[in-house]
Amino acid sequence: MLVVGARDVPVRSGDAGRLARPRRVGKLSAGSTRGGFVAPRVKCAPVTAIPGEFAPPARLLLGPGPSEVHPRVLRAMSAPLVGHLDPAFIAMMEEVKALLRFVFATENTLTFPVSGTGSAGMEACIVNLVEPGDEVVVGVNGVFGTRMADVIERAGGVAVRVEAPWGRVVRPEQVEAALRKCRRPKLVALVHAETSTGAWQPLPDAARLAHEHGALFLADCVTSLGGAPVEVDRWGIDAAYSGTQKCLSCPPGLAPITFGPRALAALGKRTTRVQSWYLDLTLLSQYWGEERVYHHTAPISMNYALREALRLVAEEGLEARFARHGKNHEALAAGLGALGLALAAEEGHRLPMLNAVTVPDGVDEARVRTRLLAEHGIEIGGGLGPMKGKVWRIGLMGESSRRAHVLTVLAALEDALRAEGRRVPPGAALAAAQSVYAA
Fold it and tell me: Which among 19, 22, 197, 304 would be 20 to 30 A from 416, CA to CA?
């Protein structure tokens, strides 16, 4: 076993690439030389053992993400690599773009996955559409609306916040009032599926209002894409972004985005350079477009995985997939009700794939999650921001949205609540969920 110590090991400048015997030398300052020796500038911590192969524990992922991943997607990730400009990979890129247009319900030419998570998609859309001084009306009713406002301001824009209580949606009249206060609004931005609260935000009216006031419309579809309808063209969405680890059931690492004609026109009229080189769509479009100009080395295996995940979506069909998510949400809600638990999001605007559950008085929110993980191998999420300690977030996204998973988590919650001293009728949650499936 090779043991590397923290002591400096000087190496002759002409011995690059050869392992030199350690030898004692006088004290040298970093970067100085003596007798042809170069003192290293960085000291390494001792490495006395190589860790063993990582073996992740068995988990049922029912939190806010990542979701369960189909074995076909995992197999796709293990396929041999090709170069990011290989003709076979370029052909595959075109298939990914076509499949993304299918799930976004759009004909937008500029539709592709950004290398990065959903937050990279958010930042890519904002930094390409927002210039210093631009007024942006942004809905803030949870963590991710708050994050959009932050990114807008970092891009030099003026974030005109439209606030709503966490768990409720932003109303069209609020958007219109904010637009009327702007001198020249550039953009309206809303989160379609607020993952922190479980609120399902309607988009068509806000998009219409944006256009009536000469503004573009941007939608955060990170959690909704592939689990609920996202109709970019029909709803008048100018730009949208998502993530791979939610309802698409692909590992995290890519952010699908789509830009329509109005958004591309605004990008072309910029008077300042896009502040991010890495996320500059004028550059990325040359790699994902016909020119195939090198920009960065695309994550090859992640694109394999996304292609396979999108194939699974297409094989199931969007309508069937949306119906599956809806039915499993109904069954979960019925079972939760039988346990005396209520959903935190506004009635009539509750997401089918992300369920924020109000923690009852006297129940330790974190202890229940810990019990579910330790005793049942089930991961659910806790609350964020003002909802921290007040809600559990149960995700039924993509591959995680299965009847068996709904029944499993309900049984585990019944056990955990009983351990917290709650009196719950045995089997009532499962019976309530089964009645939904039987209907």
Answer: 197
- The full set of domain ranges for the chain reads 1-55, 71-315, 318-438
Structure tokens of 397? 């996204």
Closest CA to 201 of 388, 353, 346: 346
Homologous superfamily of the 318-438 domain (CATH): Aspartate Aminotransferase, domain 1 (3.90.1150.10)
The one-digit pLDDT tens for each residue of the chain (439 residues) are: 444 444 444 444 444 444 444 444 445 454 555 556 666 677 778 888 999 999 999 999 999 999 999 999 999 999 999 999 999 999 999 999 999 999 999 999 999 999 999 999 999 999 999 999 999 999 999 999 999 999 999 999 999 999 999 999 999 999 999 999 999 999 999 999 999 999 999 999 999 999 999 999 999 999 999 999 999 999 999 999 999 999 999 999 999 999 999 999 999 999 999 999 999 999 999 999 999 999 999 999 999 999 999 999 999 999 999 999 999 999 999 999 999 999 999 999 999 999 999 999 999 999 999 999 999 999 999 999 999 999 999 999 999 999 999 999 999 999 999 999 999 999 999 999 999 999 9
CA–CA distance, 171 with 437 (Å, rounded to integer): 33
